[in-house]
Amino acid sequence: MKNLIHPLFIVLLAVIPSVSAETLYVDIEVPDINANPYHRPYVAVWVETPERKGVHTLAFWAEQADWYKDLRQWWRKIGRKNSPNYDGVSGATRKPGSYQLSWDGLAADGIPVQPGDYILHLESVREQGSREYLRQAIVLGKQQPQHYQLQGSAELGLISISIK
Description:
The chain is mostly beta strands. 10% of the residues lie in helices and 38% in strands. It has one domain (19-163).
C-alpha cells in the first residue's frame, strides 16, 4: 500500500509551532444558590485572542436555543457565528457542583492554535437569577505549567485554571 502522507507535510508539521503538547484544564464550581424557584445556570467557557477573535468554545451548557443569546458575551463574540460546531462541547445545564473541562489546543477545525497570548472567558446566567462574567489572560505554548484562580461572586464559584 502506498504511503498516503506526503513528506513535505511532515516537514511542515515539524516546523510550524503549535500548542498541542499542552492541555488547558478549567475546574468550574457551580454554587448551590438558595432561590425559589431555582433554575440551573447556562454556562459558556471559551477562548479568544486579545483582539477578541473567537478561537474555541470549551463548554456550552444550555437547554433551549431561545436562551443562548442570554449568554451575551459568548453569543456576541463567538456563539452566533459558529453554531454548527457545538455538538462536541454543548450539553445540558448542570446542577450545583464541581466540573472539569479540558482542551488540547486544537481549534474547531482540528488545527493547533498558534502559541501566544489568549483570554479565557467564563459566563453564567440563570433564569430569574443574575449573570456573571469572568476572564483570565493565559499564554499558550509557553511549555511551562501555569495556574490561575478566579472567584465568582454570584453564579460562579471557585474557578481553577491550569495549563500543563
